[in-house]
Amino acid sequence: MKDYTGKENIIDIETEELGSISQSNNQFDGYSITIWKVLEDCGDLKTGMIFGREDTIADCNDYILEPDDVQELGKVVISKYLDDWADAWANNGEEDQIVEMCRWRLYDPEDFAYKGDDLCNVLVKGCYNGYTPIDRATDDQGEMLEFATSVAAQDWIDEQEDGTYYLNHNEAGRPVYTIVEAL
After folding, report:
1. Is residue 11 domain-shared with residue 66, that is, in the same domain?
2. What is the DSSP secondary-structure string of 38-86?
3. Are 107 and 99 in contact (CB under 8 A)?
4. Cβ–Cβ contacts within 10 Å for residue 173, how many?
5. Is the pLDDT of residue 105 over 60?
6. What is the pLDDT of residues 111-159, one digit of tens each?
7. What is the mean pLDDT of residues 88-100?
8. Are residues 34 and 98 in the same domain?
9. Strand, coil or helix: what is 17?
10. Is 58 found in the same domain as 10?
11. Does 91 lie in the same domain as 113?
12. Which residue has the higher pLDDT, 7 or 158?
C-alpha cells in the first residue's frame, strides 16, 4: 500500500464502500478500517482505484492499494483482507496484543485463557448496550492488577462476582473475566 496524502480530496467524491471492520471498545467512536472504491476522478484518485482508510478517531490514514494489493484483494473475501489488516494493526508491537486482538473481535478473550502458575492478569470484557470495552483489570488508581498464579486471579474474580452487581449507565450486564498471561 502507498500512503495517500491527498486526504482532503476524499470527502466530496463518489465512492463505494467495499467493506469495513471496527473495534467495539468505545461508546461513540472506535478505530476502524474501511476499503473504498473510487467512482469518479478527483485529483490523484482515478475511477476504479481502491483505497483503504484507517480511522484512528483523531485522524485518518489513507492508503491507495497497489496493483499487487488489489490482486490479493480479488483472491480473498474482503472481510478476510480486513481481518488481516486489523491483525497487523493489533500486532504492531505498540499496543497490548491480546487486548487489541479482542477489541478487533478477531479473537474472544477465552481464546487466551491461562491456567498456569506464573504471573497473570485478568481481562475484563464489559457488557454495554452497543459496545464491548475490553481491557486488563486495574486497581482504584488505574494500575494493572498482576497475580502470582491463575488460582490467585480466580480468587479475585470470585470476589468480583460475589454479591449484588450494580449496573453503570448504559451497562447491560456484569463484566466477563478471563485470566490471561501477564504482559
Report:
1. yes
2. E-S-BTTB-TT-EEEEEE-SS-EEEEEPPHHHHHHHHHS-HHHHHHHHH
3. no
4. 11
5. yes
6. 999 998 999 999 999 999 888 999 999 999 999 999 999 999 999 999 9
7. 90
8. yes
9. strand
10. yes
11. no
12. 158
Residue 9 and residue 81 share a domain: yes
**What cell was used for 113?**
485463557
Q: Which helix (H) or strand (E) holds 128?
A: strand 120-128
Same domain, 67 and 120: no
Give how many domains the chain has, as a whole number: 2
pLDDT, position 20:
94
Return the pLDDT at 7: 59
- Give the residue among 52, 136, 42 at the shortest CA–CA distance from 95: 136
Range of the domain at 95: 2-103
Q: 43-63 burial, b for 16+ CB within 10 Å, e for fewer?
A: eebeeebbbbbbbeeeeeebb
Indicate if the pLDDT at residue 19 is higher than 90.
Answer: yes
